[in-house]
Give the backbone structure.
Amino acid sequence: MGRKLLLDNLEYPEIKTFAGYCNKGGYESLKKALKMKPEEVQAEVQKSGLRGRGGAGFPAGMKWSFIAKPEGVPRYFVCNADESEPGTFKDRYLMEHKPHILIEGMIIASYALGATTAYIYIRGELMYIYHILQKAIEEAYQAGFLGKNILGCGFDLDLHIHCGAGAYICGEETALLESLEGKRGNPRIKPPFPAIKGLWGCPTVVNNVETIAAVVPIIRISGDEYAKIGVGKSTGTKLISASGHINKPGVYEIELGVPVEEFIYSDEYCGGIKNGKKLKAVVAGGSSVPILPSHLILKTADGAPRLMTYESLADGGFATGTMLGSGGFIVMDESTSIVKHLWNFSRFYHHESCGQCSPCREGTGWMEQILHKIVNGKGEMRHIDLLWDIQGKIEGKTICPFGDAAAWPVASTIRHFRSEFEEYIRNGEHNRDVKHYYRLNNLQEI
Amino acid sequence: MNETKEIQFSDEALALIAKITKHYPEGKEKSTILPVLHLAQAEFDGWLSPQVMDYVASLLKVQPIEVYEVATFYTMFNMQPVGKCVIEVCHTGPCWLMGAEDIVHYIENKLGIKKGETTADGMFTLKTVECLASCGTAPMMQIGETYHENLTLEKVDSVLDDCRKADIRRSHWEKEKIKS
Amino acid sequence: MAKVTIDGYTIEVPEGTTIVDAARMIGGEIVPPTMCYYSKLETSGGYCRSCLVKVTKGSEKDPRPMPKLVASCRQTVMDGMVVENITSKEVLEAREGVVEFLLFNHPLDCPVCDQAGECDLQDLSYEHGTEKTRQEFRRRTFPMRDIGDQIKLHMNRCIMCYRCVKVGEQLAPTRVHGVLNRGYMSEISTYIQNNIDQEWSGNMIDVCPVGALTDKTFRFKSRVWFTKPLDAHRDCDTCCGKAAVWVSGDDIIRVTVRRDPYGEVEYMEDGKPGWICNTCRFEKKKLSDWVIEQPRHIDRHSVIAQNHYEELRKLKQDLSRQKEIFEKSHKDQ
């Protein structure tokens, strides 16, 4: 059994409430942190080696250290709770079951950064979580953990929730800030980075829910202790959202370094593939990261067992590796059509592109149309190379990482499953299946 | 939408807007566009007509185009009239793997409408949406604020029957209004 | 001051200058093409990605190359920066991709488009595109709209450069048009039949790099290369009154701002951009309304220049003819 730092005490239903959370040692980290200097809190986080849990894996302590501190300018701290990456649902789970750990983390982080106003940007669809958090915030205010002069240490903090309204792109931090300012969620051109010019032009740090929550155990057990968990630069525990064709889908807290094979097949985690089928492919870190076939997800190209760490999953680069991303672990069994699956993701990216810059606006639509055609039984062999070419012309050419996120699934699927595309394009059997599929779903053929 | 009806927020809603406005620094009232549009949608028949958006613009003292720009960007805002009960079925990635398309198809047949359409009695609107962060409990659909997860065809039946019986549109801001 | 090298040419420019502006100071073929950047409009640029360049050395202090191609219209120079534009294969490939994306849903209706001959997208695709298209799908279409009495919006041709939105924001007292919807279906619109009838709105026709916004008083009257552009001015209370008038026969059929070789409005003597008001643009269509200065020097849009200024002799001829027209029109009144 791995150590639980975020999802501990979940068997205790009262943990959702303020009283229950406090009974299990809640808000002790806050009290401890407020006795430290802000720099010391920052140093603990830096020592812990905590990396951003939203997907990019950038060291959180380093991100905090970039914040500009001009005189007389307010600083803001923003929580990114716009969890919309297909395959990822850990933040929702954490906020639903332990709302106070997020609030506590927010207060500690704001204190460390010298922010006196903080926002939780939650996606609009999660309105029921909004009510849970709103209640938690009110309780924290009543307890004197928020508001003026928190616990008598002279630190003021106001915490508000801001609801989005349905846009995946708002998970990108600058788009999130635009949305928070009441605008369209168009990502900003960087530099300047939010740490210099963020919300309303003021220095701002944006962190993912899980990152912020992880600050609480880090302060409790110390950064050094936290860094002992995990492997190498992948320290601590990570929430993994497991979904797809597995026996036990759900959110698991793992110590980074668990072998992928163990994660998929052990009863402690996913419990193996549903209906005793064989594993075909895994998207290991949310829809954006490259898909890997079974032989490459369980072992690296060198034959070493693949571990659930940032480094091990990325081993081999994009040729044979993938990324830990946000920890959205989607498992596909042998019956899955990879081509249809890719079309499904492509449709998602087409739908969610903000339309600001041309490669992404036009390219995501183009890729979807081609995949639509292939799925529809009208594909040609040249379409495979065309897709490959288009994704190459999107990747790295856009304002924000969305372009990469839309390109990588296409590239990796072609890289590892080219034969399946070819078979799909050639095979009449598939086409009948497709016709049925289209009739079933009332989709129009192009 | 009754064109002659005067568009005016209720007093509770106005009080809530005043409260929300205080969340943002002075001069940054534009930030309230999203929450106020959510509220407007809940108050005015579940969709944003041009008149409603103009009203929101005048209330927040911004240009109408700024409201149109924002409202059309986000998928949660309905730019066309909808039924009392909006069924949003997730059809992305994991939900798709677990049979979301079957659920959509089933609801379409059951209600006699296609995706994006509203039943003749104005009760249900069926939409498909992108990932709702409920991949581990797929397939799923959202009605109002509530997530209905691990769907089976039987479960869909019972949920829709409940909706019909209760005859409600569960709006996220309703509870909020009662509280404030 | 910062020293920057672009395709082997080194120049010293003030700190905060963008790579594009530095390249324009050097001039010539090393200037990255820009479709959305407009130096006289704040916060413009960054959207179209046609100006992507490779930075092989970040600066003297931090010589590491930048990992991705950067938008040269938004990236400011650093001392010691080394930039590759047309000398980089990667850049040219990326640009070819951008052209393809921009043309993907473009109607390619140049034969009936008023912008033909002075269209930045035509130039860009000629210089950086391929001769073949791989588009095999139905193109995205939008209904054609009138926005205001004088401006036609042909959304199918739009490349979403946001320049007209910036004009609305920065020149007009209030902005009544903007970008609606999202992603693939995003469009420039007023949403409901809001007319744009502000004093400066006509300038959005001039900033539009393609034929999406056209002057209704000029539509289908002539091809630009059949008209004679002249520098002219008049006394105007609203704007600088300095414009380019486009003459066909004895009539002014169009009035525009004076554009520099990069398609941008020229700075006037007072150091301000020479935007013109709608009165000058749409209502002053008689030669007697204007004082003609000289033939407009056209050097970028070759199709216009070649027809009229190929030979000096012809140019002189044109000039005398214009004088004649001018005198005649004044005499008639």
